[in-house]
Amino acid sequence: MVASFPKRFLSGSAWRRLFLVASLAGMSVGKGDAILAGPDEPAKPVDFNRDILPILSDTCFACHGPDDGQRTANFRLDTEEGMFADRGGYRLVVPGSSAQSKLYQKITATDAAVRMPPASSSSSLTSAQIDLIKRWIDEGAPYAKHWSYVCDHREKCFAVWMAGGGIKPGISFGETDDYSYAVALDPVHVHDLQATILHCLGIDHTQLTYKFQGRHFRLTDIAGEVVNQIIV
Ligand code: HEC
């Protein structure tokens, strides 16, 4: 993730704290390094979220992604339905067969006028990326939802302990039901939590954006309100 942080929104100390956060975040990114195998190890299966999604997001979503206004050729690769849809006699991805997959045919076309991404776009695929996509399809094209949507344990609530940075001391905000399953009082969306944390860092969350899937997102997506009830 590359976030653009306009400096004028940050005080000096906010910058330092933010730098810390950013370098921690950077440490966990490590795209692709885990798929290298040692001499005696069999290659690990390709993982959609780790290996494939970032490639598609960087090189394809600008035209085949979530933005209705930018979409060309009337399909999207950011949804499972779009990826595997029947296109009237052929499919973009045929699990187990890269040769029959239109997507693979298009990224390996020798004719530059047919090849994806188009020569006119600013992006291109490396042969290593093409090889990963081939392996993923030939391994059966397992598609997994983005990890942030996959949570099977108490997915409806979270609890966070916060201190300092202008947080009111000694209060608790929000409640769950008796089973800690559902929120019973004062729900705080995760985007609200993020907006509040950014506020405590001295950052106006509505001013920060980063480019993802061809669109400028806020760190708090398009929503997120500072939870003023917990601020001094
Ligand atoms: C700059 C916009 C743009 C980008 C970026 C782009 N495409 Fe396309 N894509 C198009 C256009 C326009 C067409 C329709 C013309 C054609 O088929 O060549 C198309 C067609 C396709 C088709 C054929 C669909 C069909 O049913 O015939 C596939 C598959 C495809 N793109 C895959 C990709 C993949 C995979 C990427 C990323 C590696 C990508 N495209 C990046 C613009 C784009």
Helix content: 25-40%
Helix-strand makeup class: mainly alpha
State the distance separating the first and last CA atoms. 32 Å
Rough shape? elongated
Order of helices and strands: EHHHHHHEEHEE
Placed side by side, the strands forming the largest sheet appear as: 1-4-5
| Radius of gyration (Å) | 22 Å
Low-confidence stretches are 1-38
Mean pLDDT: 80
User: Got a strand count?
Assistant: 5
Ligands in the structure? heme C
In the residues, how many domains can be counted?
Answer: 2
Proportion of residues in β-strands: 5-15%
Number of helices: 7
For the sheet with most strands, the description reads: 3 strands, antiparallel
Describe the structure.
With 232 residues, the protein is mainly alpha-helical. The protein folds into two domains: 3-27 and 151-230, no CATH class; 33-138, no CATH class. Helices cover 28% and strands 6% of the residues. The protein has helices spanning 12-27, 48-59, 61-64, 80-84, 102-107, 127-138, 190-200; strands spanning 3-4, 175-176, 183-185, 209-212, 215-218. The strands form two sheets. The chain has a three-stranded antiparallel beta sheet, with no helix packed on it. Strands 2-3 form a two-stranded antiparallel sheet. Strand 4 and strand 5 (215-218) form a beta hairpin. Helix 2 (48-59) packs across helix 6 (127-138). It is elongated and about 65 Å long. Bound molecules: heme C. The site of heme C has 19 residues, from helix 3 and helix 5.
